[in-house]
Amino acid sequence: MSYAPLPTTAQVVLTLEVISSKQRKIASAERQIQEYEARIAALRSEIATIQNEIASSESYLAPVRRLPIDILGEIVTVCATDPEAPVQVLRALASISRKWREATLRTPNAWTKITVQRLPAKFRQEGGPRQKLCTPRDVKEWLSRSGTCKKDVSLDWEEDSLYGDLEDETEDDNHSELAAIFSLLRSRASEIRSFTSNGYWDDEALPLQSMSSLQALDVGGLGDDEFVSNLAFSCPRLRCITTWGLSRGGPNQLVPLQSRIQVLVITRLPANDLFQLLRAGNGFVGLRALSVSCLATSWSIPDRSVISLFAACIHPPYVIAL
Q1: Does residue 273 lie within any of the structural domains?
Q2: How many angstroms separate the Cα of 6 from the Cα of each of 18, 147, 176, 187, 305?
Q3: What pLDDT, in 10s, does the model give residues 96-117?
Q4: What pTM, to 2 d.p., does this model score?
Q5: Are 263 and 269 in contact (CB under 8 A)?
Q6: CB proximity list for 88: less than 8 A, separation 6 or greater
Q7: Domain range spanning residue 206?
Q8: Domain count, the chain
Q9: Which of 79, 108, 137 corresponds to the end of one domain?
């Protein structure tokens, strides 16, 4: 409760004028703040524009833009041929700048990793980045750009893609694309340096006689003895073999190749076959690395004892991975 006397009429009028004056000052200050904020925003925008111009100038002067084409080509090759690199990496490198595009397209070695994946139509990706080549058109582009360089070919066949997916495509259309891919590979078979397939070799689709440059072979199985003999005769440079397993003949199946094999990788091998293989060490004069992922033994002794039994039979010394 206030005991001050009531203001007179003149005091009321004066007080109201003071309040109005102060409100006008507040409104004026708020307008100035808005003007300053607008000016600050304009200055920030101007700063951002100037920074972008500086970045463009620095990019123009960046050392990476002044690298010679041959150096850029080496960089592109290392990136593109990395085992984990998707095929999309080449398109990504070509989109950096005009000079990078020129280096990418003018470097045949960058296009030598030809990894083909065949999927049923309903699983195929429409647009966007891809991990592997999918169509005859893709394979043709990579083969063309790789020139006469030695190529590393890998085929990843899904079972449904071999027999067709009747819901999305006819069997004839599917086999037509497969035939087109193999036709393209046959035309460059003499340039294939390594060949990987998750299935068995199809000698009709890709004849061994045309693969004189083959150095490494990775297939689900080596087939019969006749195939291995043809392999030895047709592929004089073959040094590395990776396979799921050997035929019933065991290590004897490899006799036609034993003088030249340097690296042998077998997924599953009975212990007695491995013992037989190592006892024949004098025949495998070039073997330097032997890898067995699964050692199957029916002997009633531990695996380490098996290893100790055949260790003394190794000649020359191998690098063994079990």
Answers
A1: yes
A2: 18, 104, 105, 110, 114
A3: 888 889 999 999 999 999 988 8
A4: 0.66
A5: no
A6: 129, 130, 131
A7: 109-321
A8: 3
A9: 108
